[in-house]
Automatic annotation (TrEMBL):
Organism of derivation: Pseudodesulfovibrio indicus
UniProt-recorded name of the protein: Methyltransferase family protein
Stored NCBIfam families: MTase_DVU1556
Superkingdom: Bacteria
Gene Ontology biological-process entries: methylation
């Protein structure tokens, strides 16, 4: 009999219970910080890549008045989102949008899951207008990602490597902040529910959590 792949942590009820509708460390804290830093205003069009349950799309619409949309490839996540506004089924590394469509792209706790991060960053670059903003928050870790790892923690890369790749793909890095405290808070809540050890929440590999804001440069 072939064993079925384990349900990833972000599709498990335990993460929903520990984190709420934002399936990442920090809830809206870093979303709001980033939206304020980039000066998001009504009239902007913003994309959330790997939108999960659609919480960031709703937040950006209600708090900042922007036209926000999200792409999410998982049918299960979209079903759990219960028809949340602005969500489209698509992968973040094959975006169904023309070039220069967005003022900002958010990608929260998702880039580490891409098999081809450079290709994903190229897609973000393509759909952003010149000078548009890329908001990344994600796990980082010391050392190389674990071979064949499936969890965010296994796949996390060193922050310097991520910043280097972002620059290489045609962005200038405007802000990098350490928010590992938010990862520890979420890990503690998951440990309490018994999930952390089984599914990987970033406790190993000296994992941390970062916010990075980058800007599309004219040329790559
Ligand atoms: C940890 S959850 C974060 C969800 C959401 N960004 C949030 O913070 O609430 C990771 C999400 O990335 C999605 N995902 C995985 N691979 C993806 C890809 N190639 N493109 C876009 N989203 C992807 C998963 O389905 C999942 O919903």
């Amino acid at each position: 009999m072939v064993a079925s792949a384990p349900v990833p942590l972000w599709e498990r009820e335990a993460l929903h219970e520990a984190a709420g509708p934002t399936l990442r460390p920090g809830g809206f804290e870093l979303t709001d910080r980033a939206a304020e830093f980039i000066g998001a205003v009504p009239g902007w069009t913003v994309l959330d890549v790997g939108a999960g349950l659609g919480a960031t799309v709703s937040r950006l619409r209600s708090r900042f008045g922007v036209r926000a949309f999200g792409v999410e490839p998982s049918a299960g996540q979209l079903a759990r989102a219960h028809g949340a506004a602005g969500l489209i089924r698509a992968r973040g590394d094959e975006l169904p949008f023309g070039q220069g469509r967005f003022d900002a792209v958010f990608c929260e706790c998702v880039l580490s899951l891409f098999d081809d991060r450079a290709g994903g960053l190229d897609e973000f670059h393509r759909v952003l207008r010149p000078g548009g903003f890329l908001v990344l928050s994600d796990l980082c870790a010391s050392g190389s990602p674990a071979e064949g790892g499936a969890s965010c923690a296994d796949r996390a890369a060193p922050l310097a490597d991520i910043a280097g790749l972002v620059r290489e793909r045609g962005f200038s890095v405007e802000l990098t902040e350490d928010h590992s405290r938010l990862l520890r808070d979420l890990a503690a809540r998951l440990a309490w529910s018994g999930e952390a050890g089984r599914h990987g929440c970033g406790c190993g590999r000296n994992a941390g959590y970062f916010l990075m804001i980058a800007r599309k440069q004219g040329v790559k």
